[in-house]
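hey
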């Protein structure tokens, strides 16, 4: 049942991206081109998505589990740190250069757009690099902590 609802949610999201033309890099880049022929339609899509999310979060905030019984795990971090700012900048630069963010890129890949394949491969490479760097950072921190406390592995 969980897989079915996951599929249906993804399908609705993908159809929404296609209908709103947000899987089109030209449409997204038109929104980001403030000095040229600015296309405000992405702003309307964002406002609609935020309105739905606000209602969704308000409803979820009162429940410990989803309608299917899985636990609701909302983010707890509230600090703005260098990692958040750096990741946001990297995301924004990638979005501005390619005209894709992850969801629309997957929809465009499914539609056979070659540019989306390049983006998705780069996105996966970035995810793998992050996991590798994060693993090395945690390993280094735990070894440094063990050294300062005198505990050996």
């Amino acid at each position: 049942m969980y897989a079915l609802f996951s599929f249906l949610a993804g399908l609705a999201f993908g159809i929404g991206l296609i209908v709103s033309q947000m899987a089109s890099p030209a449409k997204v880049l038109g929104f980001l081109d403030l000095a040229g022929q600015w296309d405000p339609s992405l702003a309307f899509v964002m406002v609609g998505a935020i309105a739905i999310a606000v209602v969704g979060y308000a409803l979820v905030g009162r429940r410990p589990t989803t309608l299917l019984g899985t636990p609701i795990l909302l983010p707890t971090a509230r600090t703005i740190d260098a990692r958040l700012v750096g990741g946001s900048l990297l995301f924004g630069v990638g979005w501005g250069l390619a005209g894709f963010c992850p969801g629309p890129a997957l929809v465009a890949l499914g539609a056979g757009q070659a540019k989306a394949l390049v983006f998705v491969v780069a996105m996966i490479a970035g995810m793998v690099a992050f996991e590798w760097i994060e693993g090395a950072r945690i390993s280094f921190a735990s070894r440094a902590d063990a050294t300062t406390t005198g505990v050996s592995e």
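The mean pLDDT is 88. The chain has one domain: 2-149.
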